From TrEMBL:
Its EC number is 5.3.1.29. Pathway: Carotenoid biosynthesis. SUPFAM superfamilies: FAD/NAD(P)-binding domain (SSF51905). One of its GO terms (molecular function) is ribose 1,5-bisphosphate isomerase activity. It is an enzyme of class 5 (isomerase). GO terms for biological process: carotenoid biosynthetic process. This is Putative thiazole biosynthetic enzyme. Residues 16-486 form the Amine oxidase domain. The lineage of its organism: Archaea, Methanobacteriati, Methanobacteriota, Stenosarchaea group, Halobacteria. Keywords: Carotenoid biosynthesis, Isomerase, Oxidoreductase.
Amino acid sequence: MELSEQSVVVIGSGFGGLSTACYLADAGADVTVVEKNEQVGGRASRLETDGFRFDMGPSWYLMPDVFEGFFGDFGRSPDDYYTTEQLDPHYRIFFKDGDEVDISPDIEETKETFETYESGAGESLEEYLEKSELNYEVGMEHFVYEDRPRFRDWADLNVLKNARGLSLIGSMQDHVEEYFEHPKLQQIMQYTLVFLGGSPNNTPALYNLMSHVDFNLGVHYPDGGVGGVVDGIASLGEELGVTYRTDQPVTAIEGRAGGFKVEARDTFLPDLVVSDADYAHTELDLLPPEKRGYSEEYWESRTYAPSAFLLYLGVEGDVEELAHHTLVLPTDWESHFEKIFEEPEWPDDPAYYLCVPSKTDDSVAPEGHSNLFALVPIAPGLDDRPVIRESYRDLVLRDIAEHTGVDLKDRIVFEEVFTIDDFAERYNSMRGTALGLAHTLDQTAVFRPPHRSKEVDGLYFTGSYTTPGIGVPMCLISGQLTAEAVAADYPNQ
């Protein structure tokens, strides 16, 4: 890939933007990343106050092979920028009927745990993970790292040969039911769908590959949290020649003779533009109507991944009952998903996630304190007036106390709520979605918006709205695919 003489502005510094910038700079382009907020990272921002440091967005380090591949493309290793450790347990689950289970890095131990719920479930888990591993290996090589933006790209013998045997259709619910009858085991196999912004009934069965990610590749923690990974990738970009400009909210993308004019606090005049800002925001707010690839009606009709009610807490003392990653699940979670995707409203019996990085990393909280945040997936676009936030905050704290035994109410020394309107304001996200477009069957692969603008030559997109989709590893790969599209359109320039 060779792009000397080209100047590129990348709008937004989420993982997709940071990745694209690295690949383009490595190809010889003059790259400037323009970021709206005060720090790079996009949704992977950090909140630092009173000795506490919170990852505001992603907090799971999954698919280490993708990070190794990314840094390897530049002759580096993740270890050159940060270290990781595998968590044990990977995560803890509190079911709201009083049941508790730890998922261990030891597969044999996990199989024994499954057997306690259902006879033969250990063997079923082994079979399920074999299928998951196949889907992962074939899917990553032939469908994730290869961009196929047109239907005809899928209609060749090589694609059909590699797709044979994969779980491409049907829902995750149908697929999991083939292996496990016990509803709790089904939930354990499906919780990762939250990372994809879907539910068991609207996410394609192909995403059983996430169980290989979870059980076989393991759950890790990077020192400094996910923010430490952001720092590492940004440092790599600097070594490759990338320039970062923060506090530069872009207000317009305009054409000019031979290139673009990008209006922010300053004006930038690049040859090419890559947007890692939300796709809908870029089209509806930064481009004139005649330059949009999709109509406002298109964006209104999409299925968006959940938003989130986030409660960042600095608390006195330890929280021994919780693991680094903890899930609290109703025994029947269908009602919660219905209140996200079917009849949107604030869930009164929520499924949620608790993260306590201070269990692993002493640097994220003052001595004698714990760093904790709660994340409740909720429907995007809900009313989140202050009175609603306050009421829901109280509900979540009561629920944590009741179902984990951790009463935080009188131990809180710092707290901050971040939810729907905050996502919309800070990240320009459509309806305040926390993730982007959900991975429904009609919003996967070729059905996601393309990396190339449909209407504007020289304008490209990267990040979670494009292929391969939602999640930090997927956004890293999206950056590579976007850079490859640029190089294909502007060879040897």
